[in-house]
């Protein structure tokens, strides 16, 4: 029913190296995201233009159909290739992405017959923690890309969107960590502290 798409196509300019491969508590960042979310999906695809670097994951990798179109171009390519009608899209640098929130989004997109279910955070819409209906979204995204618009939210007003309000999303992510992405060494250090804190609480 669900394809999980992990997006690892960013430039990582602030890190000086591919942040998806930087260790976080003993494992590459992208591995942590994969381990957290793969149980909810029947298929997993990694969107990347450097597939050889991720061969250790032993999952399908998919380069962009056309270069230079950002994450939206990657989403178009994934929606075309997905074996299932819904795609859960997540960034490779979100170590606290919420499987429970994604499950809620999948349930909501089916119940409401929406084309996209996208959560709203303190920073606005979160298109890389959202669920997309392939059949409805693909033609609109292709039209948007052809027009030279590459923003992930540029096309949403042309489809049926269900927004998950902050107060609802908070039920699945009380600390507000699900949408937190890592761009700097300092953020990696803070993420390690949060992981250690969670491990202490489990004891």
What does this structure look like?
The chain is α/β, with parallel strands linked by helices. The protein has one domain (2-202): Alpha-Beta Complex (Spore Coat Polysaccharide Biosynthesis Protein SpsA, Chain A), CATH 3.90.550.10. Helices cover 36% and strands 20% of the residues. The strands form two sheets. Strands 1, 4, 5, 6, 7, 8, 9 and 10 form an eight-stranded mixed β-sheet that branches. The termini are far apart. The model has no long low-confidence stretch (mean pLDDT 93).
Number of domains: 1
Shape: globular
Residue share in β-strands: 15-25%
The overall pLDDT, averaged over residues, is 93
Provide a count of the helices. 6
Largest sheet, strands/sense/barrel = 8 strands, mixed
The separation of the N and C termini measures 35 Å
Rg (CA only): 16 Å
What is the class in the CATH system?
Alpha Beta
Which features does this protein show?
alpha/beta, 10 strands, 8-stranded mixed beta sheet, Spore Coat Polysaccharide Biosynthesis Protein SpsA, Chain A, two-stranded antiparallel sheet, globular
């Amino acid at each position: 029913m669900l394809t999980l798409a992990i997006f690892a196509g960013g430039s990582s300019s602030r890190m000086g190296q591919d942040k998806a491969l930087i260790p976080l508590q003993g494992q590459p960042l992208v591995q942590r995201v994969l381990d957290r979310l793969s149980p909810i999906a029947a298929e997993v695809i990694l969107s990347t233009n450097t597939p050889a670097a991720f061969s250790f994951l032993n999952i399908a990798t998919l380069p962009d159909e056309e270069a230079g179109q950002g994450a939206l171009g990657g989403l178009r390519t994934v929606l075309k290739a997905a074996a299932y009608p819904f795609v859960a899209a997540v960034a490779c640098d979100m170590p606290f992405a919420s499987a429970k929130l994604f499950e809620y989004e999948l349930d909501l997109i089916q119940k409401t017959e929406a084309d996209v279910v996208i959560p709203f955070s303190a920073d606005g819409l979160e298109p890389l923690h959202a669920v997309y209906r392939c059949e409805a979204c693909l033609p609109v995204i292709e039209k948007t890309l052809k027009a030279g618009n590459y923003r992930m939210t540029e096309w949403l007003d042309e489809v049926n969107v269900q927004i998950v309000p902050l107060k609802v999303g908070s039920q699945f992510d009380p600390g507000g960590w699900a949408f937190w992405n890592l761009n700097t060494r300092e953020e990696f250090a803070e993420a390690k502290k949060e992981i250690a804190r969670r491990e202490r609480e489990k004891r």
